[in-house]
Amino acid sequence: MNKNTSRAVRAAAVVAVGGAAAFAGTGTGAAAPIDFQPIPVLCPAGIAETQSLTHTENDAVEGDEVLYVVNQQSVGGGTVSWINVNTGVTGTATLESTEGLWGAPAALTEPEAGTVLAAIWGMHENEAGEQCFLLPGVDIAQVPGEVEIPEDE
Description:
Blueprint: H1 3-18, H2 21-24, E1 32-33, E2 39-41, E3 50-53, E4 66-70, E5 76-84, E6 90-97, E7 105-109, E8 114-125, E9 131-143
Antiparallel strand pairs: 1-3, 2-9, 3-4, 4-7, 5-6, 5-8, 6-7, 8-9
Protein name: Secreted protein
Signal peptide: 1-24
Keywords: Signal
C-alpha cells in the first residue's frame, strides 16, 4: 500500500473509530469549521463547509495529527498545504474521497505538536461533479502532540 492510500485508509479509520458523532454534532467532540473557508469558483453548486479535527476535538485523531474534511460526498482533489510555525515542518496532502466518511474527501496530516497554519486550495471536484478552483481557505490549529495515556493502577 502506498503512502497516499495508507493515509486515506488511516483517515477513514480515524473517523470510523471516533464515530460519526464529530460530523453529526453529537457527543463531546465536534469537528470545527476551518477559520476561513475556501472560495470555490467556476462551479455554481460550490462546496460544503470544510472542517478540521485535532485530538482536542476527537480522541480518535492522534495527538500529532490534523484531519481536514469537506463535509459532502465528492471525488475531492483539493490540496492541503501546511506549516508548523513552531518547528518549521511543512507538508501537503490531497483531499481524497474516503469510504469511512461516506465518500467525503479527507486529508490526514501529521504536523506534530505546535501551531499549524494550513491552506486548502486548488482544483476540487464537488458533489455535483463540477470542477471547482478553490481560492485558498485558511485554518489555524493548535496540535497538542503525543498524548500520554495514564496507566491503570
